[in-house]
Amino acid sequence: MTRPAYIEALAQSGVLPRLAAFDPQVAGTPPLDLDLPDSDIDILCHAPDPHAFAATVWEAFRDQPGFAMWQWQGSDRPVVARFHCAGWLFELFGQARPVAGQLGWRHFAIERRLLALGGAPLRAAVMARRHAGAKTEPAFAQVLGLAGDPYAALLTLEQLDDATLRAQIGV
Fold this sequence. Notes:
The protein has about 170 residues and is of the alpha+beta class. About 45% of the residues lie in helices and about 15% in strands. The chain has helices at about 5-15, 15-20, 30, 50-60, 105-130, 135-145, 150-155, 160-170, and strands at about 25, 40-45, 70, 80-85, 90-95.
């Protein structure tokens, strides 16, 4: 059985309208066209009141297969929930920080920008690393020759202009 495109799964889940009060944003590999058969759909939310976010998520998705929800102990204690719908694993992440400032969104934004600049050759190189077992950020770091922690290394690229990024990519 093949699963539908992530856009169709989003529509079937109703996750975006149900979480509209929390500025839900889709991130991760499906919108970058870097997903693998076991990739999930990440929804990042601005949840200044974690209790309200958790209550909304519980009410909307508790009956979905594989539903689980927890709250991190560190940082600003984001709430995370996951469930299955339309053949996809959904992961909801609610943090007090606005989505644009969340690490997951920042990684997504720089990856999207890199792919726009690097085109098909960069996408193919990253996908080759992903097919070999690398997670997304390490795959980008390997392809771009970034040393150290791949998550931190990618964030060092955020403030670079397009010409500098193109040189880093090699295009």
